[in-house]
Amino acid sequence: MSTPPRFTHASGLRRLLIELHRCPDDWSGPEARALLGYCADRYRALAHKYGQSGEDAATAAYEALTATATRWARDPWGVVTTAVQRTLQAEHRAHGLLCGAERARHLMHAPVHDVTRFADYLPVERDPAFQVIDADDEDATATSDMTTRFVPTEEALADAVGVFVACGWPEDVARGALDLICSRLMEAGQRRRAFEYLRRHPEGWGHLDLSQEQWTRVLTVVLGAQHPDLAATDLGRGLLWRLFVGQRREEISCDPAVTRALATAAPLSLEARHA
User: Fold this and answer.
1) Measured in whole angstroms, how far is the alpha carbon of residue 108 from the centre of its chain?
2) Contact (Cβ atoms closer than 8 angstroms) between residue 188 and residue 128
3) Could you read off the pLDDT of 149-194 as tens digits, one per residue?
4) CA angle at 125 for the pair 119 and 128, rounded to the nearest 5°
5) What is the model's pTM?
6) Angstrom distance (rounded) from CA 135 to CA 142
7) Comparing C-alpha atoms, which of 65, 12, 6 is closest to residue 36?
8) Cβ(50)–Cβ(57) under 8 Å?
9) Contact (Cβ atoms closer than 8 angstroms) between residue 18 and residue 71
10) Which positions ≥6 away from 128 have C-beta within 8 Å?
């Protein structure tokens, strides 16, 4: 019967971590690789609970294993387990909130709901959330005919992301902003209601590290300017409505009102801001 590796018990793990601290190059050695493989197996079930893999858990474990507190802890495995669980929870929360893991740690117990992605909804033709003029308006018939040319939801969202990227936005931040706007739009059922809620609540610009001024520009581009006199114009209808009725992404990307507003509101990427 083979003897289990020394790192499976507290004292053996502590000795190994001290040795690895003194000679960091040994992390590429067989015993260190075996330790990380053991961590992947040990925390695989925990990782699956938060929608991640054993390898993700091993990465989180490595960060804990290299910490000074772990080397000198009475129960180093207890420290590692707690750290891995918190990291997996933060990554899971970050995915739901569309923000970085470090920011998610601070929001772990905050009363903030996860973002609902626009692509999670089934496409529904002539969704009232996209209506921009009353049924009594003289252009109502034409608008109704245009609205039936519905762009599939995932395609519309991908095209909207493409417009943002063409204006200098990192793709991850663009998708996060649009997912948040679209989820609120579907919940509110009306563009004006969604616009006012998102404009007044910091969940949008806070999660994406935008200023309120940048965020308001983004909302105006995506949901349209909310002045009644502009309701029948492209500026009043907004990016989502224009894609909804079948306008091409290339056409919208050449609209100076859209490109200027998005370019002046473009932030850094999520990776750059959490580096």
Assistant:
1) 15
2) no
3) 333 357 778 888 999 998 888 888 888 888 888 777 777 777 788 8
4) 90
5) 0.46
6) 11
7) 65
8) no
9) yes
10) 189, 190
Q: At 51, which amino acid appears?
A: G
Taking Cα atoms as reference points, which of 257, 271, 86 lies closest to residue 176? 271
Ranges of beta strands (E only) in 19-148 are: none
Is residue 138 a contact partner of residue 237, using CB atoms and an 8 Å limit? no
pLDDT digit string (tens) for 211-225?
888 888 889 988 888
**CA distances (Å), 99 to each of 105, 111, 124, 153, in order?**
10, 15, 29, 23
Residues 6+ apart with CB under 8 A from 250: none
| Residue-wise burial string across 54-77, b where 16 or more C-beta atoms lie within 10 A, e elsewhere | bebbbbbbbebbeeeebbebeebb
HSE at residue 35, side-chain half, CA atoms within 13 A, is 29
Q: What is the DSSP letter of 5?
A: P
Residues 6+ apart with CB under 8 A from 116: 179, 183, 186, 187
Is 273 strand, coil or helix?
helix
Residues in Cβ contact with 162 at an 8 Å cutoff, skipping those fewer than 6 apart: 249, 253
Is the separation of the CB atoms in 220 and 241 below 8 Å? no
Give me the DSSP letters along 63-113. Answer: HHHTSHHHHT-SSHHHHHHHHHHHHHHHHHHHHHHTS-HHHHHHTTTSS-P
Domain ranges of the chain: 6-106, 118-273
User: What is the four-CA torsion angle of 131, 134, 135, 141, rounded to 10 degrees?
Assistant: -70
In whole angstroms, how far apart are CA 167 and each of 49, 64, 134, 248? 38, 40, 32, 16
Alpha helices (runs of H) in the chain, residue ranges in sequence order = 10-22, 30-42, 44-49, 54-65, 68-71, 76-97, 101-106, 140-147, 153-166, 171-188, 191-200, 203-207, 212-223, 234-244, 249-253, 256-265, 270-273
Let me know how long the chain is: 275
